[in-house]
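Q: PD-(D/E)XK motif protein, please. Structure only.
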Amino acid sequence: MNLLDEIKLYYASLDKNRVRVLKSINPFITYLYMDSSSYAVVIPVDENYPLYFDEFSGFIIQTIEMLIENKTTRVLMLKSKSLKNLDQFVIIANNFSDPGLNGILRQSLLNNPLEWSNNWKQFFGNQYINKESYDIFGELIIYDYLYGIDKTVKWTALDRGTHDFESIGFSYEVKTTTNKYESIVTISSQNQLHSHVPIKLFYVKVEKNPNGICIDEALDSLKEMGIDVDIINTYLEKNNLQKGKIERKDKYVILEKREYLIDTSFPQIFPEEFESFKHRNRILKLTYTIDLSGIEYQSF
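A: Structure for PD-(D/E)XK motif protein:
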């Protein structure tokens, strides 16, 4: 029996919440699994195997711990998000499970599961462009900078604060872009450029580059400074950047960092202007865009 037929046969008779080993590809240990909401294929890995997470077209690939034969085992898992489209899942599961000649495909998968999932994204036509990845990368870089000069600074965006960062003497807002040729920022609320203390705007230009650093590396730097990164990881998860997610591995180089002091000469809509708007009681939120060209700033 070939691998594809074995997968089809096993899913037709597999009991929920039980694992079953694929025999046709022995000695490359691979299990099939099914619960009340998903199908899964799991490959046992070393306990130190890295955490990965990615998703495409209704499927998830991730590193998790699960109970196999009464033993907690770290595995690389491919699973569906529902019990629909079994025929489609069987085809992808076959590709995931197939060890190839002398195990070459299995080794390639384990070495870089995110490359494997990215190939399927391209096949399905998925376009996973997560702007939050470089936005948050910029915030991490600025947090590193600010904490290095002022230990009172807090990343208040973690708790949905009005501004990204607050310290005893300043409020800080961070805007990050991959646009190398324009200097435009979007102000997402009427209060974002206003505070009871002086406020500064950091404007960061970045570019994807394999020689740069990624979100995970920026987190490591913050951890070395004594910052609790568990709270930051919770914030990342809320922004669809779970541990092991491919966007956390994207590497960026910093092209430029600017610091603007938000004073009366900086273009903005002041609170008193907003309050005087016609039908102000029906305007719930104000968003506007500023061209930073020609505005004085400091590089750092």
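A: Brief note, in case it's useful. Residues 3-124 form one domain.
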